[in-house]
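User: Before I run my own analysis I want an independent prediction to cross-check against. Here's the chain; please return only the structure tokens and, at the end, one sentence I can use as a sanity check.
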Amino acid sequence: MSPESIHRTAETVRASPVDVSADRLKFNGDNTFQRELRRRVEEHFRRSGHKQRDSVRMYLKSSIILATFVASYVLLVFFAATWWQGLLLSAVLGSAVAQIGFNIQHDAGHQAYSEHRWINNWMAMTLDLVGGSSYIWRWKHAHFHHTYVNIDGHDSDISLGVLARIAPLQKRYRHHRWQHFYMWLLYGLTAVSWHLHDDFRDIITGTIGKRRFPRPRGKDLAVFVIGKLVFFTLAFGLPLVFHSIGTVLLYYAVVAMVAGLLLAMVFQLAHAVEEAAFPSPSEPGRIDKPWAIHQLETTVNFARDSRVITWLVGGLNFQIEHHLFPRISHVHYPTIAPVVEATCREYGVPYHTNRSFGAGLASHYRWLRRMGRPDPTPAPLVLKPLPQT
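Assistant: Structure tokens:
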């Protein structure tokens, strides 16, 4: 585990009434590669004179995204006069919601937006504005997923229950043979599930996937409750003053499905693809790889040469760089990627990437199809009778 991850985990555990460290995994091995990689990246920033956080480009980008969100919402609720205007504005609003998640909230939730914690905390709460929970996200994504990528039972992002089989060690059900078809529709319901079910279930049960986490208290609970009230007011309460319930539900569905599909697809292309590994502990509580090597074996980049995609998905097409340096703002990923890749090649460490967004989608499709098929079983051993003497 990286020093930053250990420090953040220790702080959280000390403040938590739940013993979340009881089933933690320990990464083992030589960390020489990680230390050298960190040294080279820090040297890159010293030479360039750029700060790792508090980038002017990031503040400008956030202004554009938030302005798009506000403008599309106001036009949809107060000015849309025809069905096609409503559908178009709903799609734009859904895209803006995804943009907030990819760019603003994601950086802020990782403390990569600013050097000032209060700015990070406020910008992270943009997730509460669009229907999620910044508190639950911090546990589900920043802690469980980033520490234990693609390890079944520890990384809740690959635990979809009976809906889909993502990892080889997960149980296969008969309907999974069609998951490479039906999951694309279910991805569109991702945001709906977050809004109406997942966060409330997690709070009630005190678990995320198979992992326990401390329920929010005090300020965190207030943010959760107020965030949900604000979201439901914006999504349903205010629109119902001016429109029929059918119209409100229709356009909410479009917004949520556009946002959900975009969010799910981008995150799946990083880990649920053919190039990514799905390791399991060699023994209880132990992974026989250093933390940084584990991140590289389980993470895949895509479309690194596309500036448009990089801008739209908040640099999450550079997932390798993000997983190795989650506290560096995503606007710097394209410039540190050559440093990371060159160091990986020098040390003989894997650096996986798909050339385009389409190639990543195709790889995810093939992985879903492979996981939906029955596991190959060895042919039964047939014992031939011994010749009689």
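Sanity check: Strands lie at 26-27, 207-208, 211-212, 286-287, 300-302, 352-354.
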